[in-house]
Amino acid sequence: MMVMHKRQSFPFSIVEPEKIIGLSKDITIFFKINGDGWTSEYSSINKLLIYLYRKSQSASTRNNYLQIIKKFCLSINMTSEEVVKRPKKEVEKFVQQFADSYNKPDYSRRTANHVIATLKSFFKINGFTKTKELDIYEYYIPTRYRKRNEYIPKKHEIYSMADVSGSPRNRALILTLFSSGLRNSTLIALRYKDIKDELLQGITNIKIPVYPEMKKVIPNACKNSLLYYTFICDEAFDALQLYLYERTEKYGKISDGDPLFASDYNQITKNDRSKKFLTSRQVEKIVKLSAKTAGIEKWRDMTPHCLRKSFETVLHSITIDGNRLDPKIQEFLMGHLLPGSQDNYFDISAQEDIRFEYSKLKFNRVVVENKFKRLRNAIAEAFEGTGEDIDKLINEYVNKKNYMQNNRKKV
C-alpha cells in the first residue's frame, strides 16, 4: 500500500517567498511555492519538489528545474497542471518545439539536451512512464564540442592581471581564484570566518574549506554537496592580508559572517557594503576587465573558470622538488570525487600532509621563493615527527650563522 506524504511531515521552516534561496519572487508566485521552498499548491510541481528533496535537497537543482518549466509553460500558454493532463503526442510536440527553440547561435547544444532531460524528468514524475514515456529527439554533440571559446591564461599573465586589477580586493580575488582552483560560486560564498583562524596565525598557505552549508548563501556554492578543502599560495595570502586590512580601515571591523570578498556597490551604506556578497557576474567582470587592462589579446574569452583551469595546470606540473603531486591529491584539491572506491580510502583528515604537498606547487612568480620553499620542505621532511617548529629552527640557524660570521670579522 502506497503511503501518501503530507506536506506537514517535512521539517521546513516558513519564510517569506523573497527569502527562498535563489528563487525569484515571480517563480514563487507562478508556481505557488510555499515559504518552505519545497512544497507547492500545484500537485504537478509539488511532486517534482518532493522528488528533488528526496534526491539531493539541492536548491540549485530545484531552481534550475523551475526556471526551465516556467519558460516551457509560458511558451505553450498553459499551467503545469494543465499540460500534464494533455495526451502524450501533444506533450511530445510541445517539448520538441521548445527544445528546438534552443537550437540557435546564442545557445549550446548541451543546453538544448539539458532542457529535454529536465522536462522528461518532470513529466515522468507526473505519470509519463512506460508506454507514456516521452520520445524526444536530442541533439548530437561532437567530440570536444564547445560553444563558448575560452582562453586559459599563463601564470605570468595572471600576475599581470592581478597587478592591474584596480584594487586590493580584485588583486586578492584573482590570485585566490588562481591558486585555490575555486569555482566562481564557491568563492563568492566564502565568509571571513572560513579563513579567520589561520589568517590570524599567519599561515601563508591558508586552508579554504568548501562545505554544503555554503549553499545557504549561494545555491551553487558546493557542487554535489562534496566536502573538501583547498589552499592559497603565498602571494595570494599577502594580497588577501592587504585587502582585509584596507577594508577594515575603510569600513570598520569585519564580522565572522561577513563575505570574504565584499561588494563595493556604492548605492548602499558603507556598513552594508562590507556585508553584501558579490555576484557571479561581478566576479566575471573583474576577471575580464583585468585581462583586458593587462593587454591579453583574448580577454573576451576569459572567465573565472579559466583561472580554475590554470590552477589545474599547476597541479599537473612538476613541483619544486622535481616530482609530481599524487593524482589523488590533485583530484581532491579540484573538488572532484575520486573514482571507484578510492574516495572512501582517501584520508581527508590528513590536512597538514596535504598542505605540505600543496606548498611544493609552483604558484609563486619569483624563482628565489621557490628555492626557499624547496629548502624549507627538505628541512620539514628531515624533522618530520619530532614536533619541532621548522621556521623557528631556520631562524635559529640563520642567527647562529650571522653570529659566527660577525665574530670572525672581529678576529
Spatial order of the strands forming the largest sheet: 1-2
Beta-strand content? under 5%
Query: How many whole angstroms does the radius of gyration measure?
Result: 26 Å
User: What is the subunit organization of this protein?
Assistant: single chain
Annotated CATH topology of the largest domain: hpI Integrase, Chain A
Percentage of residues assigned to helices: 40-55%
List the helices and strands in order: HHHHHHHHHHEEHHHHHHHHH
CATH architecture of the largest domain: Orthogonal Bundle
How many helices in DSSP terms? 19
- Supply the CATH class of the largest domain: Mainly Alpha
* Major beta sheet summary: 2 strands, antiparallel
- Could you report the average pLDDT, rounded to the nearest whole number? 85
Please describe the structure with a list of short key phrases separated by commas or semicolons.
hpI Integrase, Chain A; 411 residues; mainly alpha; 2 domains
Topology:
Elements: H1 25-30, H2 43-55, H3 59-76, H4 80-83, H5 88-100, H6 109-125, H7 155-163, H8 168-180, H9 184-189, H10 196-201, E1 207-210, E2 228-231, H11 234-251, H12 270-273, H13 280-293, H14 304-316, H15 327-333, H16 342-345, H17 351-358, H18 367-382, H19 390-410
Antiparallel strand pairs: 1-2
Helix pairs in contact: 5-6, 7-8, 7-13, 8-11, 8-14
Overview of the molecule:
The protein has 411 residues and is mainly alpha-helical. It is built from 19 helices and 2 strands. Strands 1-2 form a two-stranded antiparallel ribbon. The longest helix has 21 residues, at 390-410. It is elongated. The termini are far apart.
